[in-house]
Amino acid sequence: MKSATIVLQGVILLAGIGALAFLLGMPQIEGRNAHATQFQIYFNDPFLAYGYIAAIPFFMVLWQAFTVLGYAKQDRAFSPEAVKAALTAKVCGLAMIGFVVGGEILLLSNVFGAIDPSDDRAGGLAMGIMIGFGSVVIAATASMFEQLLRDAVALKAKAEISAAEGT
Q1: How many Cβ atoms are within 10 Å of 152's Cβ, its own excluded?
Q2: Contact status, residue 96 vs residue 139, Cβ threshold 8 Å
Q3: In terms of Cα–Cα distance, which of 51, 55, 56 is closest to 30?
Q4: Can you say how many angstroms the Cα of residue 67 is from the centroid of all Cα atoms in its chain?
Q5: Could you give the C-alpha distances from 104 to 54, 59, 98, 147, 163, in angstroms and in order?
Q6: N or C end of the chain: which has fewer CB within 10 A?
Q7: How many CB atoms sit inside 10 A of residue 167's CB?
Q8: What pLDDT was estimated at residue 58?
Q9: What single DSSP character describes residue 130?
Q10: H-helix or E-strand containing 58?
Q11: Structural domain boundaries enclosing 115
C-alpha cells in the first residue's frame, strides 16, 4: 500500500513539473512571441498573467492530492485533515472552472487584444473546453472523495464512541 502511494505521489510530482515547464516554456515558442523580448512576453500580455493566476488552483489541487496520499501512507486517510484537503481540492476545482469560463469570455470578447482579429479562435476555445472538462472532473472527483472521507470519519467516530461506552 505504501509503495502504491509513493508511486502516485511521484506521478503527481511529475504532473506538476510538466505543467510548470509548459507554463514557463509555452510563451517562448508561441507564434506571436517568436521574436519578442522577455519583457514583451511576460509583461505586455495581460492574458498570459491571467493564465498564470488561473494555474494557481491547479497546483493547489495537486498539493492537496499529494497531501491526502501522504495521510494514506501514514494510515490517517480517514481523518479530519484528509476531509479538509478534499474540500480544498473541490473548491480549487470549482475555481478552475470559473477561471476557464472567464478565460473563454475574455477570448471571445478580445478584451485584452489577446488575439489578432484575423486569427481563428477555435484553437483557444477548444483548449478552454478541454481544460474546463478536466476541471469539472477534478471538482466532481474531489467532491465524491470529500463525501466518502466525511462519511468514513463519522463512522470511525461513532465506532469509537460505541467502543468507549461498551467498556
Answers
A1: 15
A2: yes
A3: 51
A4: 14
A5: 12, 20, 10, 31, 54
A6: C
A7: 5
A8: 94
A9: H
A10: helix 46-73
A11: 2-166
Can you tell me the distance from the alpha carbon of 136 to that of 96, in angstroms, rounded to the nearest whole number? 9
Task: In whole angstroms, give the CA distance from residue 125 to residue 122.
Answer: 5
Q: What is residue 34's three-state secondary structure?
A: coil
Q: How many domains are there within the chain?
A: 1
Give me the pLDDT at residue 70, please. Answer: 92
- Grid coordinates representing 65 are 492530492
Give the DSSP letter string of 64-127. Answer: HHHHHHHHHHTT-TTSHHHHHHHHHHHHHHHHHHHHHHHHHHHHHHTTT--S-TTS-SHHHHHH
**Cβ count within 10 A of residue 84:** 15
pLDDT tens-digit map of 104-130: 888 888 766 656 666 667 777 888 889
52-82: b or e for each residue (b if 16 or more CB lie within 10 Å)?
Answer: eebbebbebbbbbbbbbbbbbbeeebbbeeb
Residue from 99, 164, 111 nearest 136 by CA: 99
Three cell numbers at 55?
494555474
Average pLDDT over residues 16-23: 93
Q: Are 65 and 89 in contact (CB under 8 A)?
A: yes
Nearest CA to 82 among 23, 149, 133, 19? 149
